[in-house]
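Please describe the entry underneath.
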Amino acid sequence: MSVKSISYSCNSNSRAISQMVTRLIFSAFVCSFLILLTCTRAYAVEKCVFVIPSVANPYWMTVKQGIEDAGREQKLTCVVLSAASDQAKEEFLNLCQAAISQNPAMIVICTTSDTMTIQCLREAQERRIKVALLDTVIPNEMVRKARINLSFSVATDNVRIGRSAAQFVAKQNKCSMPKVLILEGVVGNTCNSNRVSGFKQELMEELPKAKVVNCISAEWDRLRAMNITADTLTRTSDLNIIFAANDTMALGAAEAVRLAGKSDQVMIVGVDGISDARKAILSGRITASVAQLPYLIGRRSVELAKESLCGQSNSKNEETPSLVLTKSVLEARTDKLLKYVR
């Protein structure tokens, strides 16, 4: 074979390879563009419906704010449906049906009952609506048995929340055998159960001589918490510590402690970090609150919803951080997580 023919063959092969590479690059560009276009179109016409407990509760109002702010930024239509009361179980089922009837791209839900949540998720999935969980954890076994395919879940680890509260209490405690009152939320609520169990476990590890004089449900209610605390102080005048599974109950307990003239004696720790609790911390009526950062939870639920609709973050379980709010933390304002405290 002549040198000329070899040169021609090599040039021909180079051109063929060059053309092939060009076609591959062009095809990849077209595919990426179509994916981006599909995703962009989806957000222009599709929406997500969020079913949450009552926004009369400041915690859920803050979650709603996070959802709405992130929805505007992500250019995703977000509809928030909420019950009139955190205990309105029947209303949750009606809200679920209302959400499904809108035929959204996705339903993100948080209810006070695992059974109701599973029922809602199953019905939505049968309609080919994507489903996800917001600030709630359902046992994996229940999800598997119901054959639910979660796009994502975003929540705080409530056991860790309870443990953080107990660790704080242990560091601040000055009594050899402290007496403790625990104010629970609604009995049977997973978040409540996890917070209380986490607190008890860590308390026994950190303060083995501590005595829990009462562990009782105040059903997330401020007035109930105040009355229970007042009754407990009457029977146990040397009470040292109160752990409330949410800030609303902590505020009720603080009022009872103030009226009993024992504000300097009793340490009060709540959960959520709501606005009224932060004011109470700064004024010295409450010692601390383990903030779940509900605004961040709301924001992340929208961001994960968008990722899921674009084919990302499927089955992702995200745990959001928490922050122990004290007077010194609030006054210093140096912790980066404080930007999510609303």
Remarks:
- The first strand starts at residue 47 and ends at 52.
- The longest helix spans residues 3-45.
- Residues 159-291 form a domain with the Rossmann fold fold (CATH 3.40.50.2300).
- Residues 1-14, 24-45 have pLDDT under 50 and may be disordered.
